[in-house]
TrEMBL record:
Name of the protein: Peptidase M48-like protein
Pfam families reported in the protein's UniProt record: Peptidase_M48
Gene source species: Kribbella caucasensis
Lineage: Bacteria, Bacillati, Actinomycetota, Actinomycetes, Propionibacteriales
Residue ranges constituting the Peptidase M48 domain according to the UniProt record: 52-229
Gene3D superfamilies membership: Metalloproteases ('zincins'), catalytic domain
Record keywords: Cell membrane, Hydrolase, Membrane, Metal-binding, Metalloprotease, Protease, Transmembrane, Transmembrane helix, Zinc
Family the entry assigns: Belongs to the peptidase M48 family.
Amino acid sequence: MLSALGYHRGVLGYVHRVDEHAWAALQGGPVGGVGDVLLRNAYRLAEAAHPCVHQAGRRAAEALGVDAAVEFFQVHGGGDANAVYVHQDGPAVIVFEGPLLERLDSDELTAVVGHELAHRLLWEAEDGAYLVVDRLLDAAAGDARTPQQYLETYRRWRLATELYADRGALTACGELSTTVRALLKLQTGLSSADPEAYLRQADELDLSTGSRGTSHPEGVARAWALKNWLAGEDVESLVTGPLDVDAPDLLDAALLRELSTDFAARIAQTDGLRTDAVATTSAGFADPPGPLGVPGGAVRRFDEPLAVRPIDGAPMPRPRPLTEATKRYLCYLLLDLATADPDTGDAGLVASMAIARRVGLTTYDDLADDELGWSDKRRAKLAQSADEVVA
């Protein structure tokens, strides 16, 4: 049985807790039907005339545990080959576009139908909770006033949903090569394709930086994710990417606030910077501000992938690298605290430089020099003192 990705569960927990009014407004209620729209604008694929389509539908539904009837339509006109699931109460509806049915064999068609039916599984899971989140994020994306964090969450949410649906395709047809071949035919328009070559192509890429897709991950990334999911690997780095202060989603914004709070508290407890003024500035990084000088957790290194606590009950995520922008932000946080109390003088600067060395902020000296305008002689003296502290 398919299960939602950790990203789905994390966003669900966050939205349910933070956006209670929106949750209440969107939860429950019937899902609207397609009415006569498809009857007017598409051709219904009756089983008597298109038995192979319905056979693929039954096979996919049985493999996924979908007990609803499945109806199929082909829209009028040309266009690219595609398949779309239409969510409604009652029968599951799958709409084909373009010459898709002409390109796929029965196993490939089963994979495509399984992908679309997996959307239904996700929207019905946990009493429709994931459908509520999808409605909320979709509505937010259409509003020009929506903060960027919600838009990035919506992008990642859709990427995660497509990875989930791809797992439905694989579960339905039961074979990785068939699933990837169907994906390739859909994306390229080719009548034949080599899935093994595509998987080798995926291995040539570094996908740890995440997908750059807006609604779907890149095809090669989807193939990579399926292969590694079968191998029991965590592939959600494709959705989240590194921790980037310049493009956080809702979950990363929470992680960055926590990281800032912990780091600032740790700085404020360091010899040379343990003053009331520094503690007051440190407490301001907490949201809401906490007691002055609360010690942070264990010292973390920022030049290594960062192990972060899961958000709202999601599984423990794979450690994530920090982007250069995030490291630069942490350098500025450190410099703000190092200069928060003029009375700390050089001792505070040396203490901050020693912290930077311990946590792997290798560009801190350059940044501080650029901002404070040290002479070469003074910088060398401060750096030597910091090296002695660390040693």
